[in-house]
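Researcher: Go.
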Amino acid sequence: MKLIATIVGCLLFVVLFAACEQKVEKQETKAVVAPAKPMAMMMRAIYQQSAEMREWVEAGKPLDSTHFRFLDFHQLEPTDSTVLVEVFYKHNQDFKAAFEDLIQAGEADKEKYNTLLTKCVSCHEDFCPGPIKRINKLKLAS
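Model: Structure:
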């Protein structure tokens, strides 16, 4: 009887040990990323243009409308269509006015450049806050 109990115990140990040894295959999960909507793509272009504007202002070069054009993003399809409300359009008007003020200054004006970025941040505080830190990094010390 002891022999049978010992054999069963050994078999049970071997089975449990073998079960623990089986390698668990990792299942790779990949996040599905939807393609960016037109407004998001335009926002990225605005960011790139703003970074270039910063270089010009730092270098003391006046900004001009032939090189820097207003990128009219408000009519493009957004990622989230619930942003298309009156406040959003007001932010767009404020941004456009700050852009035109900067371009029409005829000089590299740090204050007007920073005002433009403040208009971006104001809108992003109400809609899509993700890029605020990145936008603030573009601001120049006055």
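Model: Residues 38-58 form the longest helix (21 residues).
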